[in-house]
Amino acid sequence: MLRLATLTSLLALAAAATMAEEIKVGVSPGEHAEIMEEVAKVAAPMGLDIDVVEFSDYVIPNTALADGDIEANSFQHVPYLDNQMKDRGFDLVVVGTTITTPMGIYSDKIDDLATLEDGAKVAIPNDPTNGGRALLLLQDLGLVTLTDGTGLVPSPLDIEENPKGLKFLELDAAQLPRTLADADIAIINTNYAIASGLSPKDDAIAMEKAENPYVNVIVVRKGDEDQPWVKTLVDAYHSDEVKAFIDNSYHGAVITSW
């Protein structure tokens, strides 16, 4: 016969399972998806069942969230979110920070930016925030100079000085790893680099500084920010277990924000 305490515990677990809230969280491939799978494991005993939904680009996760197809997403930094809300009218809100993924420069043709030839082809993301982020990285490295006042979203039209006469190819961020056979260098977001088998630590010939405005965030629809499941989601993400997973899995290529 089961002891009363054991029976009570089993009934409590069964009740928790029955009452578990289910949400869908949109992510991009690579580290965002991998980390959210770990978050789901932590959240399950807390009464939150997370269905991790992968999207292949940076636009659809916000559209899906705004349309009510998912309850939250975790894939973007604040400058990108702000631009999306401005351009598309999304009514979304940040409920927590997650990770920073320094953008890297990759090449199949050179091992050192000092050997980059005049007129080289440079592939960058075609969305305003990540494209601007790539140009700011090139400016930090002394390869271009941007017009003052362009902020975080410069475009190639804002390049004031281009001593090497670099030629820019603006492409969908997810497609950039495939351009390495054609472009001389490609500036690639870490999630797409990792998803394509590139190692930011071993394969990047230059990396963005870790201290930057591009910390990633968890986003929900405005009005949902005070829902109990939001706190559970953020608490699970900010858990010691998830931090240990990130530190052990990415070896500095992905940096926690908490």
Automatic annotation (TrEMBL):
Q: How does it sit in the membrane?
A: Lipid-anchor
Q: Which residues form the signal peptide?
A: 1-20
Tell me yes or no: is tRNA-binding among this UniProt entry's keywords: no
Q: Indicate where this protein is primarily found.
A: membrane
A GO cellular-component term linked to this record: membrane
Lineage of source species: Bacteria, Pseudomonadati, Pseudomonadota, Alphaproteobacteria, Rhodobacterales
The record's keywords, sorted A to Z, are: Lipoprotein, Membrane, Palmitate, Signal
Which parts of the chain span the membrane according to its record? none
- The organism's place on the tree of life at top rank: Bacteria
The protein's location, in the record's own words, is:
Membrane
- State the protein's name: YaeC family lipoprotein
Family indicated by similarity: Belongs to the NlpA lipoprotein family.
Q: Is Membrane set as a keyword in this record?
A: yes
